[in-house]
Amino acid sequence: MQIPLQITFRGIPHSDAVEARIREKAGKLDRFHSHIMSCRVAVEAEHHHHHQGNQYHIRIDITTPRKELVISREHHDKQAYEDVYVAIRDAFDAATRQLEDYARIQRGKVKTHDLQSRGAVIRLLQEKDHGLIESEDGREIYFHRNSVSGTGFDSLKVGDEIRYIEETDDLGPQASIVYP
Predict the structure, then answer these.
(1) What is the distance between the alpha carbons of residues 19 and 13, in angstroms, rounded to a whole number?
(2) Which residues pair with 44 in a beta bridge?
(3) What is the mean pLDDT of the chain?
(4) Spatial CB neighbours of 15, under 8 Å, sequence gap ≥ 6
(5) Quick check: 40 pLDDT over 90?
(6) Which residues pair with 143 in a beta bridge?
(7) Which is it for strands 56-63 and 172-179: parallel, antiparallel or unpaired?
(8) Mapping DSSP to helix (H, G, I), strand (E, B) and coil, where does residue 180 land?
(9) DSSP 81
(10) Within 10 A of 78 (CB to CB), how many other CB atoms are there?
């Protein structure tokens, strides 16, 4: 990485053990994409719930020369983690999959036009930097601001027809690239 790893703790005190685990996982990302410019990791904890302990959310921002990948284990993912190490493992597993897919596309090992689907934007949450696409078969596909190419996220409107490349992870379908 050209820029040193940045780790932020929100709502929890700094932990050397958690930081060490993040540094270990982040150090392995270069194996999946050789031109990572920077990596930022945020570890966030919600307040205690009556029947549960802290809920941990992990966000990883990886910058490459042509794309920023965002891996987010936040509220919209419908899953929170009570064990910070499990949350970190799952977030870095998702980051690895996205980097591998992105590297394959860059090398030309994947014909992206074969993977593209069509759909329409059905919901935009500007303040949360994401939205939903309705696929041709009626499913809802999540997408993040950083997935939108071309004129960008801010130019999208509900009802716009788009093309997208779908990925599926343990939290369900999401669009890795959205073409307005």
Answers:
(1) 11
(2) 10, 57
(3) 82
(4) 9, 84
(5) yes
(6) 131, 175
(7) unpaired
(8) coil
(9) B
(10) 8
CA dihedral for 124, 125, 128, 133, sign (positive or negative): negative
Q: In this predicted structure, what is the pLDDT of residue 98?
A: 85
Q: Strand, coil or helix: what is 15?
A: coil
Helix or strand or coil: residue 5?
Answer: coil
Tokens matching residue 165: 């490349």
Going by pLDDT thresholds of 50, 70 and 90, the confidence category of residue 70 is confident
* Cα–Cα distance measured from residue 70 to residue 62, given in angstroms and rounded to the nearest whole number: 6
| Angle between the N-to-C axes of helices 16-27 and 84-107, in degrees from 0 to 180, rounded to the nearest 10 | 20
- CB atoms closer than 10 angstroms to residue 161: 10
Confidence of residue 52 (pLDDT cuts 50, 70, 90): low
Q: Is the pLDDT of residue 111 over 60?
A: no
Residues 6+ apart with CB under 8 A from 47: 11, 54
Cα gap 126→50, rounded to integer Å:
31
Q: Which of 49, 46, 40, 52 is nearest to 12 (CA)?
A: 46
The pair phi, psi for residue 138, each rounded to 5°, is 90, 0
DSSP letter for each residue of 110-171: S-HHHHEEEEEEEEEEGGGTEEEEEETTS-EEEEEGGGB-TT-GGG--TT-EEEEEEEEETT
Q: Are 175 and 133 in contact (CB under 8 A)?
A: yes
